[in-house]
Specification:
The complex is a heterodimer. Chain A has helices at residues 11-14, 18-32, 60-74, 87-94, 105-113, 124-133, 138-143, 146-165, 198-215, 247-260, 298-309, 325-328, 346-367, 388-396; strands at residues 3-7, 39-43, 46-50, 80-84, 100-101, 181-191, 219-228, 234-244, 267-276, 314-319, 329-333, 401-408, 415-425, 433-441, 447-453, 461-465. Chain A has a five-stranded mixed β-sheet, sandwiched between helices. A five-stranded antiparallel β-sheet of chain A has the order 12-16-15-14-13, with no helix packed on it. In chain A, helix 4 packs across helix 8, helix 6 (124-133) crosses helix 8 and helix 10 (247-260) packs parallel to helix 11 (298-309). Chain A has 14 helices and 16 strands. By secondary structure, chain B is α/β, with parallel strands linked by helices. Helices cover 28% and strands 27% of the residues of chain B. Chain B contains six helices and eleven strands. In chain B, the strands form two sheets. An eight-stranded mixed β-sheet of chain B has the order 6-4-7-8-3-9-10-11. A two-stranded antiparallel ribbon of chain B has the order 1-2. In chain B, strand 7, helix 6 and strand 8 form a beta-alpha-beta unit. In chain B, helix 5 (111-124) runs parallel beside helix 6. Chain B is globular and about 55 Å long. In chain B, 47% of the residues are buried. Classes of the chains: A alpha+beta, B alpha/beta. Strand 10 (314-319) of chain A pairs antiparallel with strand 6 (104-107) of chain B, so a sheet runs across the interface.
Chain lengths: 467, 206
């Protein structure tokens, strides 16, 4: 085992209080978790990471060191790093020898021997005592006979020295990634508009992304909480069609929703809470993919559109089995990606049903018989509304444009091309419709779908265009 | 290299010869109207570019003109996006024209967002066709759409009022619909690589 110690001398100074520093250290532990499954928060300002097992994977210590330093620099940290086979030794060496790598026990003891007693990490009492005896370096301490030394400095300090040399095992509490993500950033000033919120949002999304990478999962639903001083917090839910994990994508998607939210009051803190953390299956990328950089897959495109235009602005069309034209067509939201087997969408099923009807109609037309028979010849019962021939006639006379609300058709009476087709339905739900539909030609040459109230001869209402 | 192989190479869409008619090299989707296909280079709507349909009034068959091509796209699993349509695209009629509703998406947006959405969809490369209704589009916007369609290899269909017929446009194809005694004429106003000296007004029942 090789333990790398990351010593953050700047951690106390950067954050105002101890709890903020410890939170920061926890988020750094979450980041370090991607490099090793054994990460321990050793002290209030240092992390221990077991790197021996994965050193070959990351291309050796020089490459891993460069990578760690570069990524930490992005978070604004410049820690001291040292690697030793014993965690306690790595902790002590990191404070003096930044960048040191020792893989064997003997050189480690030599390096430790050169360390001054004051930097040994022993208890303050033991250090004073050793100083008073005239011992300056650990080499001198190690050279003393064990029983005498133990009697002088006590069993606690002796145990610490043994751990330093690796003679005594040290029990480390390993970091475990939490099951939910909740980070909060408090502001010094009240923020009145959304643009200043984007910077903290970027940081939160970055932390969420690190968290998800470490867990090897994604996020499908999270919540932005804008806290106000004197009223209830504004909660902005962010729902995604597929699990995501990339920091930039998350920021972009959250940003769009934040921009459209109205701030009820000045914001005093921003929090990001994610509980729904499904596993993520990244798309397999083709080795010879020729698509260019700016190309987007449909799920990502849909997410971007939803983020900027609103979740309900991107919709699919669907059919409802209903005679009243205004109710026969509806919109359905884009289907959410189900984590397990793909669920057949409502639209898909309706499409299939309609195709079946069309096939049925074709067969009926071919047979030239009114009755409908299945392939094996047994008669099939169909409700009158669904008999193929009629369905076909109807669908052929349906306009491509439907007006959301029928309008009076102005001008002289139009020329009737096809009709009438009586549509009478809805007496049971209070929205009774009795209309005679015609395909008409207007003076301008437009083909319109218009209706007259049943039995009437005037009062043309325009309901669609054969566009 | 023998002549057959050279001929095959010259038919490659990436190779353009100044002297030859470009008609072989345009990738297209048939319009479904044989008279129109015969006129258009490559025999259909040009892929990866902007096509404009100009008309004076609603209900001249401007949308049914596209239906065979859109049905073909959804059959191949490519998305057809309606960006801010003026009315409700009536789902039963779309199905009757052979569209697969799973691949039909509507985006609701105001004018500014509509242009942005259309451009995003075209550029993404994950949409087969994008239909837009922009009344006030200027040359710069049209140019952006044309470039986005090229980059994403999608077809942009833009529906515009007939009064914009004499305005300059970067579209690859511009068609105008004229209503005439119960029938509708399709006039080709502009078409890249087409010799415009021939008669370009066709009578089609669309």
């Amino acid at each position: 085992m090789l333990w790398a110690c990351l010593y953050f001398s700047d951690l106390g100074a950067a954050d105002a209080d101890a709890s903020a520093a410890s939170r920061r250290l926890r988020s750094l532990a979450a980041w370090a978790y991607r490099y090793s499954s054994q990460v321990s928060i050793a002290e209030s300002d240092a992390l221990l990471v077991e790197v021996g097992a994965s050193l070959a994977l990351f291309g050796g210590w020089p490459a891993l060191q460069r990578r760690l330093r570069r990524e930490l620099a992005e978070f604004g940290h410049a820690p001291a790093l040292a690697v030793a086979p014993v965690p306690a030794a790595a902790r002590v060496l990191a404070r003096r020898h930044d960048g040191l790598l020792i893989e064997q026990r003997e050189p480690m003891l030599t390096a430790l021997g050169a360390m001054p007693v004051g930097a040994s990490g022993l208890a303050a009492g033991a250090i004073t005592l050793l100083h008073n005896v005239g011992l300056r370096t650990l080499r001198e301490v190690f050279a003393l006979p064990r029983p005498e030394l133990a009697r002088r400095i006590g069993p606690q300090a002796m145990m610490a020295l043994d751990r330093l040399r690796g003679d005594e095992p040290e029990i480390l509490e390993l970091y475990r990634p939490p099951e939910r993500f909740a980070h909060r950033i408090e502001f010094d000033h009240r923020i009145e508009a959304w643009p200043p919120l984007l910077f903290p949002l970027r940081r939160l999304c970055g932390e969420l992304s690190l968290f998800l990478t470490a867990r090897d999962g994604g996020v499908q639903r999270f919540e932005l909480v804008l806290e106000h001083e004197d009223c209830a917090a504004t909660r902005i839910p962010v729902e995604l069609l597929t699990p995501q994990r990339d920091a930039h994508t998350l920021h972009e998607l959250a940003r769009g929703r934040l921009e459209r939210a109205s701030l009820a009051a000045p914001v005093s803190a921003l929090a990001l809470i994610a509980r729904d953390l499904p596993p993520l299956c990244p798309r397999h990328k083709d080795l010879f993919e020729s698509k260019r950089e700016q190309h987007l897959e449909w799920p990502q495109l849909a997410e971007r559109l939803r983020a900027y235009l609103g979740d309900a602005s991107v919709r699919q069309l669907a059919i409802v089995a209903e005679h009243r034209p205004e109710r026969a067509c509806t919109f359905s939201p884009l289907p959410l990606a189900a984590p397990q087997a793909r669920v057949r969408g409502e639209a898909e099923r309706q499409c299939d049903a309609l195709k079946r009807i069309a096939r049925e109609a074709e067969r009926t037309a071919k047979d030239g018989r009114a009755g409908c028979r299945t392939r094996d010849g047994s008669p099939q019962l169909l409700t009158p509304a669904l008999t193929g021939q009629r369905e076909r006639e109807q669908s052929s006379a349906r306009p491509l444009w439907l007006l959301a609300r029928a309008l009076p058709l102005r001008g002289p009476p139009p020329e009737i091309l096809v009709g009438p087709e009586r549509i009478e339905s809805g007496w049971w739900d209070g929205d009774d419709a009795r209309r005679d539909y015609y395909v008409v030609l207007t003076r301008e040459g437009q083909r319109a779908w218009a209706y007259l109230p049943a039995g009437a001869h005037e009062g043309w209402m325009l309901h669609g265009w054969f566009a | 290299m023998n002549a057959v192989a050279l001929d095959a190479v010259l038919k490659h869409p990436g190779i353009w010869r100044r002297s030859a008619s470009a008609s072989h090299h345009v990738r297209t989707i048939p319009t479904g109207l044989s008279e129109l296909d015969a006129q258009l280079p490559g025999g259909g709507w040009p892929c990866g570019s902007l096509s404009e349909i100009l008309f004076a009034h609603d209900g001249l068959g401007e949308l049914s003109l596209l239906m065979p091509a859109l049905a073909e796209l959804t059959r191949k699993g490519q998305r057809v996006v309606f960006v801010a349509p003026p009315y409700i695209p009536y789902a039963p009629a779309l199905v009757a024209h052979g569209l697969d509703l799973r691949y039909v998406v509507q985006i609701d947006a105001n004018a500014g967002d509509g242009a942005w959405s259309a451009e995003q969809c075209l550029r993404s490369g994950s949409c087969g066709a994008v239909l837009g209704w922009m009344q006030q589009a200027d040359y710069t916007q049209l140019r952006r759409l044309q470039l986005a369609a090229e980059s994403g290899d999608a077809i942009a269909f833009l529906f515009r009022p007939a009064r914009t017929a004499d305005k300059a446009s970067p579209a690859a194809l511009r068609l105008q619909l004229h209503a005439d005694a119960g029938a509708v004429d399709v006039e080709i106003l502009k078409c890249r690589t087409l010799d415009m000296r021939r008669a370009t007004r066709l009578r089609c029942r669309v």
